[in-house]
Every structure is written in C-alpha cells, then in structure tokens.
Specification:
Blueprint lengths: L2 E7 L3 H12 L3 E8 L6 H15 L4 E4 L13 H4 L21 H12 L3 E5 L4 H9 L7 E7 L14 H5 L1 H8 L5 E4 L1 H4 L6 H7 L7 H17 L8 H10 L4 E6 L1 E3 L10 E3 L11 E7 L1 H13 L3
Parallel strand pairs: 1-2, 1-4, 2-3, 4-5, 5-6, 6-10
Antiparallel strand pairs: 7-10, 8-9
Helix pairs in contact: 1-2, 1-10, 1-11, 4-5, 5-7, 9-10
The chain binds alpha-D-ribofuranose (RIB) and calcium ion.
Calcium ion (CA) binds next to helix 1.
Length: 308
Amino acid sequence: MKIPVIIDTDPGVDDAIALFLAFSSDKLDIRAVTTVGGNIPLEKTTKNSIDLVSYFGKSAKISKGASGPLLRELETAEWVHGASGIASVKLPKGNIELYEKNAWDTIYEEAIKFEGKLNIITLGPLTNIAIALMKYPDLKDKIERITLMGGACYIGNTTPAAEFNIYVDAEAADIVFKSGIPLTMVGLDATHKAVVLEEEINEITSSGNRVSSVVKELFQSCLSVCKLYGAEGAIVHDALAVAAVIDPSIISKKEYYVSIETKGELTYGKTVVDIYDVTKNKPNVEVALGVDRERFVQMFKGMMREYA
Ligand code: RIB
Ligand code: CA
C-alpha cells in the first residue's frame, strides 16, 4: 500500500533533489506538491515546482501557498540557492496547470479523502501547515504524521540558535509543534551526518541518463555551498526528510518534548529540545539524531534508475 503524501516545499536546490527522490519512489502516492515562500519568493518556488514535476514526467496537483510568514517579513536565501532557486539549472517550462485550490485547502481536501492516513512532508517554512490547522480545526485529527526538515537540538544555520525553515516562520512552527499531530523532525543533527561525497555524486550521476546532468548540477551547487561551511560533502537536507518517509529505518530517532522559541532576541526560531526531560512534558516529536549514510547514498543511485 503506497503512503499518501503531500510535499510542502520551497525549491530550492535541496528541495529539488528531494523531489527527484520522492517522485522516483514506488512507496509514495504523491497527492500534491504545495508551495511556500522560503528559499526564494513564492512565484519562483511555484514555478520551480511546476517545472520540476513536469521534467520528471510525473503528475500531481501543484497548489500555491503562502508568500510569506504569518507575522514577519519573508527572509529568503538566494545566496544559497541562486536567484532562480535551482542554481544554474535550466528546465523546460512546465506543462502542469496550477491546481485551483490553494495549499491549505488542498491539504484539507486530501486529508478528508484519506481519512487520517495522509502524511505531510515539509521541506520549507511551516506557514501553509499552520494556516491549514487554523482554518480547519479538525485537520489535526486527519493527518497520520508530518515529517519535517527543520530545527536542530544543538545548532543553527541561519542564526547560531535557529535552522532556516523554523527561523523563517517560528510562529507557524509553534502552531504545528503544539498541534498534537505525530511529528518527525529531521533536523541538522541528522542531515549534517548525511553528507554525499563528491565521488559519490559522480557515481550517482554517471549513468548518463536524461536527468543526470540536471541532478549533477544540483548536487554540485549544494556541494559548493556546503564546502564553504567546511563540510566534506553535499548536505541535501530536504532529501533526508523524504528518505525518512520512504524508509523510516534510515534515521535513528528519539522522542523528546520540543517547543519553539518565538520571543527570543537571539534565539528566535530555535527548536528547544528537552533532552533531559526537565520539563516533564509529554514528548511530542520524534527527533532524528543519526542516519545510515551509505543507505542514503544508495537511495540516490536507485533514484537515477527510475528516470532512465
Ligand atoms: O536549513 C535547511 C533548509 O532550509 C532546507 O529546507 C533548505 O531548502 C532551506 O529551505
Ligand atoms: Ca527547503
């Protein structure tokens, strides 16, 4: 039985690789791709989503979501992803028409259809999910699990305290983390252990099939930015969140109580992980701490065979 999923995304170089992986999997029934302003503005994340899914030769509802956070101004990351959001990659103009419903109405529509079995994979700020939860109070009982790329126990990549997806809209994250929906947080603690080495990138993209050069450009762009931070390989954050839904055993995780800082001057957007259970609050999140890196790399090799 395929897992019905909605992928909420802000493509984004690593989002693009994550979408390649998701659409190559026979385990996922991708009901919709919902777009959000994040790495780059909404118009471009939506265009990239349409162009990518069309390029895959696949189909899915593509629904436009929030242009920015609930309260704050959108802070983008073109310096990481390029002005287009997908580095130097040039894709043919996509042929998928935008779905008539927006992101939050699409999420609810699919949640009703799958009666509690719908999974959501979020690869960007959590704005769309928060809006859906506010507009449809019963939605929280109709989502099986949200697997989100975001947060971290110990580090930040946007401020010293906060990871980008949470930092961009901490108020939205606060709503999601308090929703009671089962959550798996694939944060920097795990993604930073999932580096894909340059020689592995070459192996993954050596097949010379119709998508090899695009996938290689995306990986190389990711690698060059990650090396600036001293990483020994490409850290494809969003792809690990997708991989964790395709094969949950690829990550090791522990349940913690996690809350979101929305007031701190220096700590806004921090996922505050109660490692030592000092609050005695019931854990609300499965936090990814480790990864089977070799299996993650193998997944990408399998992915390429699906686009032959
Ligand atoms: O911190 C990494 C996350 O922020 C990824 O989702 C990346 O695409 C950016 O959105
Ligand atoms: Ca992203």
